[in-house]
Design brief:
heterodimer, A: alpha/beta, 4-stranded antiparallel β-sheet, B: ABC transporter involved in vitamin B12 uptake, BtuC, two-stranded antiparallel ribbon, 15 helices, 2 strands, 71% helix
Chain lengths: 594, 361
């Protein structure tokens, strides 16, 4: 994800100096081109956060650019206000429109959401051309130049500095954000709602914030565009532009900050090159440009979906940033939950029932988990184990019954709030972020114990807390024996280690109870032994564990207490020895003994 | 479809106007129904949300328009170019798989057969065609576009995530709409009406044109229904739609199913284009707007249900027709804004019935 620490400020410095001196060397045409690249970069950066990191595909960014551009165009001409008022109004207006649209649509999943972005994108674009006060299809001309302290930025070379100032700030802020608490949450979104909620992330809220942020960046870009061209009309904000921005993000490498810059530059240069080349071949060059563009995009999606930056990065000798955040002057410790006394009732399940239509998957199940013990929930296939598990963690809604955890009634508690009460879980099908390091995955576990917001993260005001999160994550990685791999990508681990990594992530939440959904499934014998050993050690440290499991040997050698389910009902409960001697259990597993 | 003198702001709604608007909505809606059927068909079999489906409809209407003006439609060049590309891609993939012996067969499939309607067009010539002949030629020319586009654009990434396929489909729209501009020019086409006059039922006049459109839409929907219900190929398509892996295991050639779905959908697009051509002026880039509206119908059907898709298409026809009465300028914007609540409603319905979670990578 990052260039090594020493190199990073140096690279940024070189980049900043290069940006600063280019206007002294380059001609007017190059500067105009660079101005466009800067504006495109801002828009694409929003898409990198939204689509590349957050997994929300939007075809409608161009409409937000349009809102930003029209807001300032209208205010600075018809209303005669300063362009800076236009900027504020544009950002507020795009943010507000995004908030409303996002609030309505961001619950949508799958391909429904991208389709709605096409819909509102086209609707907003069509509106520009039909409002008389916005000049209808003719647009708004004579937009004044930006001025600051009496200095007017009225030619391209002057405006260049304003554009790249905003662009640089946005790039830095976005890079900081992605490496902060909320940035990790954004990058976790692609792992699915179940995973994010189990970590205490309010998925809808995070999606909404990224959506508004991307729109605001587009709004700023629209402001710069309006004062650069001094004229706005509907055409540049259509769906075609929307897909062009998406192309930039995908081409550069959606998911990487530098990809925004690279993608924007690549598309602008290719466009420029096509404009030079095509007229030599045909008289219809303007029309052919879009054909070539469409074909290039299709080819790109056929051949390489990861984009330029990840492709190039493979060949660069950059090492990931392995240095911990600096020791804070006033160290912060993450909040912990007061543990329950050993042997007291930690989790109490009463009358747990779940119906799917006519099918009763879980029928009036009662049991308890005592603090400091390992309790196993077993049963044949279809017995309702996983359903019970999901009912307890809040992933499914109860039909009736009551779950009490550490004195809290869990009815009405949202899935993402359960973890802050001290209940952390793992998944039967491992849910990790393969493109994040082990350390980052475990740091995600600390999400609900920390509090840095989007703005603080982007401004890097999170150092002290980040250090505390880092320390916790490293400690949990060491506890499960993965500390030496902390900076490797989670996707490179074997399944057994991925399971263990999920346990470390659950531990990082500082829970009272960890819930393991079939932890031994798919593991080799040695891996199972190692996992059992780890769980025993956790119990010795006072941790309470509830696991759902198929593997009898694994359960019998490990659990203090076993609950057997069959056809959704509790069949037996007791110590492993009692369960093994229970004729009803034997019958359920082996068939009746005639 | 436009209403005579439509969009008169502030004009009061009378019963006559109401009837006119509903008739208009049914006519437009019937065409959207056909398009929704094609889009759902393609999505079911290939998972492609084919937003550029409307472009095939536009090509059909523009081709018919060119015939009416005694011009050779540019569609012939598009078909020939795509056929050449498809053949080259197929041949290259055969060589890679060391099945070069199959190349002659591939040449027949991808090179010769799609070119037959083109050859026919050149043979018959584009001048002074009778209406039935020009309609048949139009549909025949649009027909090969479906499988050819599938072979070139979608088959190589058949297993990609739905979102990637969607992005490709959007990019494809710009490519083929751009080509339409080259072939047909920027001016719009609107063919003369096939039939004129009203059929009187009591004191109501129902335009014959409307009856023709609705009738054609009903007939083709019925044919499609019978095809899926009773023919082996139709059943194979349904099987592929339900479970691609499973279909492959029982010997259904899923890439062929994809090509077949695109072929059928292109046929439907051809018919829809012919029906829409006398009622709406079609420009080279109208496809997206028209297609997206047919699309909303499919969204109502959740992309899987044909009858619901038809209902959705009629709803869009109504919104459009009444929207154009109250504000002709914002008519299109209203239709697109209306997509959002429809999608939301659909999503609530889906998420209440299907708790499965989508995990993207």
């Amino acid at each position: 994800m990052t260039v090594s620490r020493a190199l990073r400020p140096a690279l940024i410095g070189v980049f900043a100096i290069a940006i600063a001196i280019i206007p002294l060397l380059a001609g007017g045409f190059t500067i105009t081109l660079l101005n466009y690249i800067g504006i495109y970069t801002l828009i694409t950066l929003g898409l990198v956060l939204l689509t590349g990191c957050g997994g929300i595909t939007s075809f409608g960014q161009a409409a937000f650019v349009g809102i930003g551009a029209y807001a300032t165009a209208y205010l600075s001409t018809a209303a005669g206000l300063s362009p800076w008022v236009g900027l504020a109004a544009g950002v507020v207006l795009t943010g507000f429109v995004a908030l409303v649209l996002g609030y309505i649509t961001l619950h949508l999943g799958g391909h429904y959401l991208p389709l709605t972005t096409i819909a509102w994108g086209v609707a907003i674009f069509l509106s520009f051309g039909n409002f008389q006060f916005l000049g209808a299809h003719g647009g708004i001309g004579d937009i004044p130049a930006i001025s600051l302290f009496g200095f007017t930025f009225d030619d391209q070379a002057e405006l260049y500095y304003i554009i790249w100032f905003f662009c640089g700030l946005a790039l830095l802020g976005a890079a900081n954000l992605l490496r902060s608490r909320q940035g990790r949450a954004i990058r976790a979104l692609r792992g699915g709602k179940g995973m994010s909620e189990s970590l205490g992330i309010n998925v809808f809220w995070v999606r909404l914030c990224v959506f508004v942020m991307a729109a605001a960046l587009a709004g700023i870009a629209g402001w710069l565009y309006a004062h650069m061209t001094r004229f706005v009309s509907p055409a540049p904000f259509d769906l075609k532009a929307g897909i062009e921005y998406l192309l930039m993000a995908v081409l550069g490498g959606a998911g990487t900050i530098s990809g925004a810059l690279v993608g924007a530059a690549a598309v602008a240069l290719v466009k420029n090159w096509l404009q030079d080349l095509l007229p030599l071949l045909t008289s219809n060059s303007a029309n052919l440009e879009i054909v070539v563009f469409g074909c290039l995009f299709i080819l790109l999606l056929h051949k390489s979906r990861s984009g330029i930056v990840p492709l190039v990065r493979q060949y660069l000798p950059f090492k990931p940033d392995t240095a911990p955040p600096p020791e804070a002057a006033t160290p912060v410790t993450l909040p912990t939950i007061k543990p329950m006394p050993q042997g007291s009732t930690l989790l109490k399940i009463e009358g747990l029932t779940k119906r799917f239509g006519g099918l009763v998957a879980v029928d009036n199940v009662n049991f308890e988990v005592k603090a400091g013990t390992i309790t196993a929930l077993i049963g044949p296939n279809g017995a309702g184990k996983s359903t019970s598990f999901n009912l307890i963690t809040g992933a499914l809604k109860l039909t009736s019954g009551k779950v009490t955890f550490a004195g809290h009634d869990l009815s009405g508690v949202k899935p993402h709030e359960v973890v802050s009460l001290g209940m952390a879980r793992t998944f039967q099908h491992v849910k990790l972020r393969p493109t994040m390091t082990l350390l980052e995955n475990v740091m995600l576990g600390c999400y609900q114990r920390s509090s840095t917001g989007f703005v603080a993260g982007a401004l890097r005001l999170d150092r002290a807390e980040e250090r505390a999160v880092y320390d916790v994550a490293m400690r949990e990685l060491a506890r499960v024996g993965l500390a030496d791999k902390a900076h490797e990508l989670a996707g490179n681990l074997a399944l057994g280690q991925q399971r263990v990594l999920e346990v470390a992530r659950a531990l990082a939440a500082g829970p009272l109870l960890i819930m393991l959904d079939e932890p031994a499934a798919g593991l080799r014998s040695l891996e199972k032994q190692a996992l059992a050993e780890l769980l025993r050690n956790l119990r010795a440290d006072g941790m309470s564990i509830l696991l759902v499991e198929h593997d009898m040997d694994f359960v019998m050698s490990l659990a203090d207490r076993v609950v057997v389910l069959e056809f959704g009902k509790k069949l037996a409960e007791g110590t492993p020895a009692e369960i093994q001697a229970n004729p009803a259990v034997q019958e359920a597993y082996l068939g009746s003994v005639e | 479809m436009s209403i005579p003198g439509g969009g008169a702001r502030g004009r009061s709604m009378t019963f006559d106007i109401f009837v006119l608007l509903v008739q208009d909505a049914i006519g437009t809606g019937a065409i959207y129904v056909l398009m929704a059927l094609g889009i759902v068909l393609i999505f079911n079999v290939t998972r492609v949300i084919f937003v550029s489906y409307g472009d095939l409809v536009a090509y059909s209407a523009l081709t018919l328009g060119a015939f009416e003006l005694n011009r050779m439609p540019g569609t012939v060049w598009l078909v020939l170019t795509l056929a050449a590309m498809a053949f080259v891609i197929e041949a290259a993939s055969l060589i890679r798989r060391q099945q070069a012996r199959q190349i002659p067969k591939a040449f027949v499939y991808w090179g010769i057969i799609p070119a037959i309607p083109v050859a026919l067009t050149f043979l018959i010539g584009a001048e002074n065609l009778s209406l039935p002949v020009s309609i048949l030629l139009t549909i025949a020319l649009v027909l090969p576009l479906g499988p050819l586009l599938y072979r070139i654009v979608f088959q190589p990434i058949a297993t990609a995530p739905v979102l990637v396929l969607l992005m490709v489909a959007v990019a494809l729209h710009f490519a083929i709409a751009g080509l339409a501009l080259l072939y047909f020019g920027p001016e719009g086409f609107r063919t003369s009406a096939f039939v004129s006059g009203d059929v009187m039922i009591g004191s109501f006049g129902i335009p014959q044109q409307l009856i023709l459109i609705v009738g054609a839409a009903a007939v083709f929907s019925a044919i499609l229904f019978l095809f899926f219900q009773y023919s082996l190929a139709g059943k194979a398509l349904r099987a592929t739609a339900i479970n691609r892996e499973g279909a492959r295991l029982v010997g259904i050639w899923t890439t062929r199913a994809g090509a077949l779905a695109f072929l059928l959908a292109a046929g439907i697009a051809g018919v829809a284009g012919v029906l829409i051509s006398p009622t709406t002026t079609i420009y080279y880039d109208t496809g997206l707007i028209v297609g997206l509206k047919g699309f909303v119908g499919s969204v109502v059907g959740g992309f899987v249900s044909y009858p619901l898709a038809a209902v959705g298409a009629i709803i869009i026809g109504l919104i459009e027709s009444f929207g154009s009465f109250y504000s002709s300028a914002l008519k299109e914007a209203i239709v697109f804004a209306a997509i959002i609540p429809i999608v939301l409603w659909r999503w609530l319905y889906v998420s209440a019935h299907d708790a499965d979670e989508h995990e993207e990578e």
